[in-house]
Amino acid sequence: MKRISVLIFAFLLITSCNKEYNPRKIASIEVSKFKINNSSIRAIVAIDTNTVYYAGSKGDFGHTKDAGKSWNTEQITYQDSIIPQFRSLAKNGDDYFALSIANPALLYKISKDKTELVYTENNKLVFYDSLHFFEDGLHGIAVGDPTEDCPSVILTFDGGKSWGKIECSSLPKFDDGEAFFAASNTNIKTIGSTVWIASGGNKARVLKSDDFGKTWQIFETPVIQGTGPQGIYSIDFFDKNNGIAIGGDYSKPKENKANKAITKDGGKTWTLVSDNQNPSYKSCVQYVPNTQGKEVFAVGVTGISFSNDRGYTWKEVSKDPYFAIQFIDKNTAWLSGHHKIGKLVLN
C-alpha cells in the first residue's frame, strides 16, 4: 500500500509539473505612483509587495518598506564633489551594489553599516550600463561601452568584494559604433552560470557566456540597428532556451519596426515578432513569473504593454511612461521612471 501511495504521488507531481499554463485575460491593472523628487530612476531591486530599493540619477540610493507610505533616501558623493549618476543596481545577500555611468566609473557596495567604493575606472570613454549577480552569490558581472575594440566587462568571483576587468583578447570584438544602453539595467540576464548581454547602435547583437563570463560567443539579431539610438535595450530569458529582446529607436519612439525578437535556442538565432505592430520603442521587457514564459510585460517612455502569447501580440495597458519593471510574483511588480516609482497590481 505504501509503495502504491508513493507511485500515485509521483504521478500527480509529474502531471502537475507538465500541466500547460493557460494565460490570463487580465480584468484590470492598477498602477500606483510615488513621487521621488529630483531623481530619474532606471535601476530597481524589487523585494516584496512592501519593499523596493532604487538607485537614481543624482547619487540617490533609497527604499520603501511600507509599500510607498514612507521613503528612506541617502545621497552618495565621490570626493565631496562628484555626484554619481546611478543606472545600475543589484542585490547580493544583504548588500547592494550601485554602479555609475560616465568617467570615472564608480561601483559602490552598500551594506547596513557602511558604504564603500569597490571599483573605479578612469577613462574618457568609460560608460557602464548594467550590473547583475549570478544565483550562486559569488559571481557578478557589469558591462559597459567599449574603451578599446571590445565591450567593457568587469567580473567578481568573491561576492563583490573585488572586481576586475576582462582583457579584450578574451572578448568578442565590437564594431565601431556598437555599444550598450543604460536604459533599465536589463540588457543583462543570468540563469545558472549562463549570462546574455544585448548590444545596440551600429550592431544589435547578443553576447553569451556559459561559464560566468570566462569565455564568450556573439550572435547576430534582426533587431533594428545601424545608428546610435537603435538596437536592443532589454533582454529576458524564461529558461536557458527561450528568451525575448526588445528595443527600437529611442530617437523615434513611436516606430515599431524590427524592435521585438524571440529565441528558442538559447540566443543563437532570433526571430522578429509583432513586426510593424505595437508596442513601439521599449526600454525594458520582463517575463511574468510562474506563467511558463507566456505572459510578458514591456515598459518605456511610450507606456506599458502586455502579451499573453510569448510576445507575438501585445495590448497597451497604460500610456504612463516608465523605464523599468520588475516582478516580485505573478500579480505584482514595481516600476521606475522619471522622478517616480510605480507599483503595478494585476487583478
Question: What features would you highlight for this structure?
Answer:
45% strand, mainly beta, 347 residues, six-stranded antiparallel β-sheet, globular, 1 helix, single chain, four-stranded antiparallel β-sheet, 28 strands
Helix and strand run: HEEEEEEEEEEEEEEEEEEEEEEEEEEEE
Distance between the termini: 44 Å
Mean pLDDT: 94
Counted by DSSP, the helix tally is: 1
The largest sheet has its strands arranged as: 4-3-2-1-28-27
Largest sheet: 6 strands, antiparallel
The shape is globular
How many DSSP-defined strands? 28
| Radius of gyration from the alpha-carbon trace, in angstroms | 20 Å
The structure class reads mainly beta
Beta-strand percentage range: 35-45%
The low-confidence runs, each spanning 5 or more residues with pLDDT under 50, are 5-9, 11-16
Helix share bin? under 10%
Explained architecture:
With 347 residues, the chain is mostly beta strands. It contains 1 helix and 28 strands. The strands form 7 sheets. The chain has a 6-stranded antiparallel sheet with strand order 4-3-2-1-28-27, with no helix packed on it. The chain is globular. The chain starts with a helix and ends with a strand. About 3% of the residues have low confidence.
Strand and helix layout:
Blueprint: H1 2-18, E1 29-46, E2 52-56, E3 60-64, E4 72-75, E5 86-92, E6 95-100, E7 105-110, E8 115-121, E9 128-133, E10 140-144, E11 152-156, E12 164-165, E13 178-179, E14 188-191, E15 194-198, E16 200-201, E17 205-209, E18 217-220, E19 230-237, E20 243-249, E21 260-263, E22 271-272, E23 284-287, E24 296-300, E25 303-307, E26 315-318, E27 324-327, E28 332-346
Antiparallel strand pairs: 1-2, 1-28, 2-3, 3-4, 5-6, 6-7, 7-8, 9-10, 10-11, 11-12, 13-16, 14-15, 15-17, 17-18, 19-20, 20-21, 21-22, 23-24, 24-25, 25-26, 27-28
